[in-house]
Amino acid sequence: MDADVIVIGAGLAGLQCARRLQRSGLHVRVIEAQDSVGGRVRTERIDGHLCDRGFQVLNPAYPAVRAWIDRDALGLQAFGVGVRVRTPAGLRTLAHPGRHPGLIPQSLRSGLLDAVELSALVRWLGPTLVRASVSSRATRDTTLAASLDAAGVRGPLRRDVLDTFLAGVLADSSGGGSANYVRLLLRSFALGAPGLPREGMQALPEQMARDLREPVRTAVRAHELREHAGGVTVTTDHGPISARCAVAAVAAPDLERLLDVPAPPSHGLTTWWFSAPEAPADDAFLRLDASHPRGGPDGPVWNTAVVSRAAPTYAPHGRHLVEATTLLDHPGGQAPEREVRAHLERIYGASTRRWEVLAHHVVPHTLPAQPPPLVDRSPQRISARLFMCGDHRDTASIQGALVSGDRAARAIGGLLRP
Ligand SMILES: Cc1cc2nc3c(=O)[nH]c(=O)nc-3n(C[C@H](O)[C@H](O)[C@H](O)COP(=O)(O)OP(=O)(O)OC[C@H]3O[C@@H](n4cnc5c(N)ncnc54)[C@H](O)[C@@H]3O)c2cc1C
User: Fold this and answer.
1) Measuring from atom 32 of ligand 1, which residue has the nearest CA?
2) Which protein residues are within 6 Å of ligand 1, measured from CB?
């Protein structure tokens, strides 16, 4: 045997799985098809800028991040907890009152807060703010759109903020995702200030990989897994590897290719990264556009931010980094650069003529769909010695990937312990 357990895939789920297995005294080998660890959490350095492969943020309030990640070592640089929204009446600010008390008057004057809608939202979200879980038994789950409609959340807050913000977070503008999942997400936004590590998002999986005694073997792809008496053999492009158990810690579409396990549908997004000589805004808030007559953005961009305002390490001295996100499930998802620029000029009220495109990341599989009812503990055992983990087995998030990896390791630990 080459190892007790072979883990296929060095994304967050695979790395957490390997760390937990190693802690139980097992010999773990991790192989990764790409040339570095991280999976969907990777960072490119371009002309001194840090461009994550698709704009994403780390929420330090995720329970798995609090439990298993050294947040101090990452040096998180926080975004403002709130949004700036372009409405037909002008730019409006809505900020977390506890974190930005100085912005309470602006939030109250924004025209986005209607007393009836706000109390409906508090009733809708309240129990989740108190408990860290949403049991499908206790709270019947439906789609986000149907649930907010039924709760009476139907005013400017919904139309101009929630629908647009959540579409960017879920990579899904249909409102068809699980309402209970969104309750959990909003809970973590209420409790934490999402941010970006000093060295880019990839610093997170790199921190995890450093814990492993046997370094991750990168640029090694698994092609086939075969179970036999007493073990598993994984065929890779560098020869076979044998182990007592194997874990496929790959994303849902890869799982289907590798093991013929049906994968949930995916939602995708694209991120445009621009380098600007001057910042088009002086705040660290996400910007949304809600100026379309029926609500939502009047162009292809669902959210944008001057990332270097929140995370100064993301741009070199004298430059600023701006992200713009489009959704692949929406007609504007593949909009050409000129349309994206024109929309950004309307959002910021500033010219983009001197902005340079650093990268355009198109990520068709950003997140697995999370339809109702929320099932956040899907089975992970495929056969006697074969397991799977990843965000498609838990919630579609960093939190879900970490929990899923940990759960698979605990199950295998129980199986292999003498
Ligand atoms: C653009 C974008 C924005 C996001 N925003 C957020 C956010 O703000 N907050 C949040 O919580 N989550 C966000 N997410 C989701 C989060 O990044 C993922 O849920 C999480 O990283 C998934 O981790 P994973 O380990 O399950 O899968 P993956 O990261 O996909 O890891 C799977 C690994 O398996 C490897 N692999 C696949 N096939 C093979 C093979 N045959 N052999 C060897 N290796 C293989 C892959 O190369 C990959 O490294 C975002 C994701 C993207 C892409």
Assistant:
1) 250
2) 8-14, 31-34, 39-41, 54, 56-57, 221-222, 249-251, 254, 258, 269, 363, 366-367, 390-391, 396-399, 401
